[in-house]
Records
---
Amino acid sequence: MSRGCGFRLRMPVGLVVAALLVGACSSAQVRYQDYLRRGERFLAQGNLPAAGVELRNALQIEPKSAAALYDLGRVFEGQGDFRRAAGFFQSAIDTQPDDTKARADLGTIYCIAGAPRQALAIISPALARHPDEPDLLTVRGAAERGLAEYGPAMADAERAVQLAPTDENAVALLAILDKQDGHLDRALALVNQAVERSPGSVNLRKLLASLYVASGQPVPAEAQMSALIALRPRDLALRMGLANLYLKAGSPDAAQRTLEAAVKASPTDDNAKLALAEFVAASRSPAEGRQILLGYLAQKPDDDTLGFGLATLQQRAGFPADAIATYQEIIRRDGPGAKTAAARDRIAGIEAAQGQYPAALQTLGQVLAVSPTDDDALTLRGEIALRQHDPATAIEDLRTVLRDEPDSLPLVRLLTRAYEAKGDMALAEATLRSAMSAHATDVPTSLDLASLLVQTRRLDQAAAVLKATALQAPADPRPLIALAELDASRGDSQSALAAYDAALKLAPAVPELTVEAAAFDEKEGRIGEAIEHYQTLYKASSASSLARELAANNLAMLLVTYRKDHASLDEARELTSSFATSRIASLIDTYGWVCYRTADYSRALQALQRAAGQAPQSQIIRFHLGMTELALGERARAREDLEAALAGSASFTGAAEARATLASLKLPRRSG
């Protein structure tokens, strides 16, 4: 008999089950919607870790939710993990093929990765349905720019901005194209208008500041960076950008004050303190940078983040023993923790760099005894094994690490080197080709494959790989440089020169490329082109002070070696005037040789004697000194220095002149 309410509600069992299922589904849907809403709210606030947690919870309930998949892709994109972001964007597209946002974001990632054709393939279906969607037009324009199709790119960018005048990506693309086309004033006007419409846009203000820098206007650039900092006072990257701006403008004190303000704005942020110390170490002296960190550590002695930073500065400044002592202090405090393992890994790295392989292996053994799968320890042990000609051990260790980090291309390339050292070229090639199939646009992996093909005498295949890589990464000069070197080795001078010229158009301010291309031009007798390369580097606004110094040095030597006109000789003197007080032997030598070529023998002698004192083993300096002594009538000293210059296998520029001059000095002098 029923008690309680005095009656029993009868319902068929099937209906009861159905009702329960409906209630459960309703409850799950409510939880899913709550997770999704919270995830999107955190995403809008910039709280990416919290957003990721909520969105993963949403996907536990609805694994095929296009909205959650897309939003989680945005989380990874914001964290810089583009590979995982691309995976979630693709999953969102698979679930909902008409998802234009996911297609636009995935296409953007392909453009960033240097894969414009893949970007076009992913957005084309959506563009066919939505031909006036600004995001899709912007991605197509960026892909067309990557393919050097500048006319269509400009048309798409202009249409996108017309449709969405405040869209950051569309405005940025059009401004970049205007700048590339030589219309910097038009780019500035465009972005200024966009900033006026969206004054709170961080990305647009960053773009505007960079355009002001490119146009040589540091004051308005500084104003934009200051406005950015006002919008985000705790954003360290923005303050570092302003500091770099001050540094380029020749105001290191203002740069330092900017980073000091960053520490005051975020007094608990160790990264701000490390940035300040590293800046001072680089711009003033390593000792001053270390002193700053020691001051912070005095306030908080157990701050291991600062301790690691101090050890890094000590190592960089050439005090490895001090760095090891700092790491040992971290180990003493941490005991058998993760920081101890990291500190020991770094100590082993210092020992290995010094060639103390037994000590390094012993230190790594301490790490691996506690954590047998420590990836850093195994990787370093593999590198040491390679240096000690033990590829089998290297292969074993690197394979173990790759199980944890299967997408690590540096590890794959290191493993390939181990296969090559073992003589297993087929497995090395297969490993590289497998990596390229998953990372088609990775330039270093392609270069390694081309190098392997050259080693195995398959030069045509190597050239094909390099040409394909140059097409896939049209903004990267490295494939073109490697192709130039390959063509030069095959005696194809014309192709080599064309490849060097193409690379220099992409990277006119890269000193290593300029030196290599100029040296090849000089060898081929194209002295005018070699001179132009150095003049371009010297005048490049983006070139560092060291790069400009290198350009001035090499340009002056070319001018006095191959030119005799007064304008060229005057240019050489102007380029090297600051070298007179240098402490670098090669720069003093150049200054002295320019003085010699312009018949200023007294200054030449003083400079070259000082250079020879600093670098007594330098054959070219002794040659220059000997020629100067001869010009001043000091034949005995000239003969002594020329003999020293030609001792052994002398192959410096001017060696033939040195031999001819020495031979003439050995001839008996005519009387009367």
---
Amino acid sequence: MQKDHSRMTTTTKDHAPVNHQADHQAKPRAERPHHDRREAHDQHDKNDQQAGRDGADVSAFAALGLSEPLLKALAHEGYTTPTPIQTKAMPHVLAGRDLFGCAQTGTGKTAAFALPLIERLMNDRRHAAPKHCRILVLAPTRELAGQIHDSFKAYGRHAHLKSAVIYGGVNQNPQASAVARGVDVLVATPGRLLDLIGQRLVEIKTVEYLVLDEADRMLDMGFIHDVRRIVGMLPRQRQTLFFSATLPAEVRDLAGTMLRDPLEVKTTPQATPAETVAQSVFHIPQKQKRSLLVHLLQTGGMGRVIVFTRTKRGANKLAQDLEKAGVRAAAIHGNKSQNQREKALADFKSPRPPVLIATDIAARGIDVDEVSHVVNFELPHEPETYVHRIGRTGRAGLTGEAVSFCDREEEDRLQAIERLLRRRIPVRNDLPADLPKVESSSSGRDSEERSGGGGRGRGRPGGQRRSSEGSARSGGARAGGARSSGGRSSGGRSGGARSGGGRRSGGSGGAGGDGQAAAGPAPAFREVSGGDGGPTTPRPAPTGGAAKVNRRYRRAL
């Protein structure tokens, strides 16, 4: 905005009259009268709102039944066109129907329930009682709960609503204080919510609207019993909304007990990845994965990258390896403190983001639009999780790429994923020439393990570990002929498949060795490396036959 200087008069050395309007404009902000500052602030806010309205056409949202305060907020956020899930869900939520919604991650599920619920609150202005809330939103992770809360604040910026978010891992006192006077919207993770309810710091007996977001992940994480307890405390007369990226049978069963005459809204086939994500897979041994990842990060033109691992220790170890290779990286998982997780996410959203190494549980709350690549360093056990992972990229109309690393032992998981997708994932063969060499899996010990003991592993790709693990699970009778009193001890489990031919015919040797260790004095403790190369953990130092078996077991891993 260009200033008008036509009425301003400058002071001369001859002390010419000074224009008081110019003098008032030249005063520092702190010296101006309070009402003038307030007036300028209001005008600035109006200018911002008008600029937003001028820059974004929100008529499509107006047609869905949203009022002016919400349209202003959407224009400020730059939204112009509703997504399919928003178009289908909003009118029914506004009408008060229970909803069973399925849409891929990144398609606007949060706005699909937040916008119409805020509209309903504005049409029925009532203050929540102390410690109570009118809208309760349950989310599986801290990150997702925080982002849903941010969305409610952004969409309700002109609605004058009070909201709060509660989750574990941080001091509960500020959260309890935020709810003490009553809030319109409460976003919570199930565990912390039950803690505060048990301390009588939160009451949910008057909730009018219940939302379960990412309901499938809620079940995967074992929150089913917590969710049922929470629902049992709610009034029967309420509006309930289910939103999920997938609709497995367990989610349908849970929804059937909570929804009344629900309307089912699906915008894509179940568990189908977004069309904007290009997928590919490398078939590569586990020991070469780290080198390939470093090569792709340094030469593949990747921008904002999320790498998924199956374990927390694996995430930490991979982040350390990338740092040693000169690649900035940060790990995020359930063992990190809330401050560490928030810092990792803030760095990831910065203009120069590090590579984010994440586990599946923590990653469900990552809502960043410009993720260019997702790397599945290890394939997940559940094929639906693969869909959630690659849904972190290709969001908000952008394109993305998902690259997976598949070891021989992960072939079954890859096949399950392809069955779910109903198509083959293209294979990439452009491996760098300088990958570290890996010993051939056809060595004498490996062949012997695959050919005997624990027959479940025969003929499978990577049958070496599958065979031994199958033998261990089946007990000493299969592994070594007779199960000793040691039962599932390391010696008894390893006597057959993991130890070689001699132990296979006389499994009692392994068991006996372990028995000697158990019969002796209390074992000393020493540090041994985890199976995935992660941080060390204390374990008792075995002796005798068990020590030999454990050494062979670690070499097999």
